[in-house]
Amino acid sequence: MLIFQIVFVILVSIALFYGVLYNGLVTLRQKVKEGFAGIDIQLKRRHDLIPNLVETVKGYATHEQETLEKVTKARTSAMGAPSGDMKQVAGMENMLTGALKSIFALSENYPDLKANENFIELQKELSETENQVAASRRIYNANVTAFNVRIDTFPSNMVAGAHNIVKAEFYDLDEEERENMEEAPDVSFE
Amino acid sequence: MEEEKNISQNDDFWDPVDSNIKLGRFKKPRQAMKEKFKELQKSPRKLKLTYWSLVFLGIFVWGGMGYWSYRDSSSSMTFLFGGEDTDGLFWVLLLAWVPLFGFMSYVKNLQVDLIKERIAEKRKWVYNPAESSRHWQSLKTKFPSIFAKGNKNQNVQDEIWGKYKNDDQDIDFYSGIFEYSKESGSNKKKHTTRYFQTFFGIRLNEKLNKDLILTPNGKIKKVFKALLSEKISLESVEFNEIFSIEYGGKTEEKLDIFKMLSPAVQLELIRLGKESRDLKILFSGSTFLFIQNGFLFQKEKMNFIFRFFIGMIPFAKQVFIRKMNSDFIKKVEISPKDEAFFEKKITNLLNIATEIPQYLD
User: Fold this and answer.
1) Which residues does chain A have within 8 Å of residue B263's beta carbon, measured at their own beta carbons?
2) What are the Cα distances from residue B322, in Å, to A49, B112, B154, B300?
């Protein structure tokens, strides 16, 4: 009887431990999704600001049709990128960032545009959104790191394998993040 | 967010609870401190002499106790352990060193105050080395979640009012040390423990719609947090590990919190949380306030039990402070290394903290 009781306690403990590990993985996977949703919100905010910007610039820089078209095209492509495909989303958004930079660069040639209040306000809002996109991306990548490390390490790797929980993809690392990822940690046995 | 009048003028310094502070305020205590320093520089042997006299006093009392115990063990043991007062040994051994403790505390305190005074003078900040229980009362009324603590000797000290430049913007701040004591036990066995917390307040240009407190997640809290469902959690795993969010609890307020603690704010708060220990953060009206246990220049590793017992010893507060290069007993001089270290510590925190208001929505 005692043996049965011991075996029962051991089995219950294993089941509880397994449950905690599984829940931990699921929570982290959820956080990765929330992190990506965070990027998505900021990107949508950016997409919404662009038509206003293009309209404002049009009024002053009539000879810059090509640049404006490039921005509009980049925006349409970015909005159409499949949200599950991290690489494609990041690639399209990077193109849009480049196109936006060219708009702000051309404003240097149009003093009236540069002094326009609406343009200044839009520029400020876009710059703020850019900061928020960068922050969201960092949070997402940090969440992915935490999730992937959990999947790789024992004993969570066994639970992840059993439930087919796979690693998440990073969202286009920036310079600093890439350096952090590439740098091997210093290990000392002293 | 509601717009708030910009009250900051060149020689006026923002205070979260009182009217603005003028640059020349607290001239007297600051001057008195500088005079004291000059006086000590003129007669450096005075400090050395006092120090060694108190060391010998301690040795003499301990030696006397040892000799007495050796000569008449029964009577001394009755005095120390017998009768109703079983704390005898503890108090005699401790009291022998209290004068030295008090003296060392005074010297170290003066060193720290002088360093702060120099930094304040260099950066054109206002500094008050004195203790103020009146200002604590006002702070307690406005920010009870932070300052309504203890049941004895509550005050704020080492206050600094200043402006800090970040991205070409002058940001007003106010900082200080909050001291409070907790008295516990019955009439005969009363114990008083002193606590010190360092706080920084930053003035926001606009008034926030929502008051919010972020409390640190200790090791025990982390374990429970993993088991219990969280009331509110943000998208950053790291942020949720460092802080818990306390708010009114209403569902509609959650949205305001998510909006306010945007990704950029979360990242800056994580940075701030890593820079300080046990950081508690309050967003209230047009003030962003954060408070940490102990001193800003505290020793890096401080055992919790040791901290508790040290808190019971009178004059022992400066024991917490890290080893300094300046040592008035050896030479009455402030080391530039200490000044640079203190300044770096203050500006590091201000650098991060003053980033936060620009991302608040």
Assistant:
1) 38, 42, 132, 135-136, 138-139
2) 51, 11, 24, 8
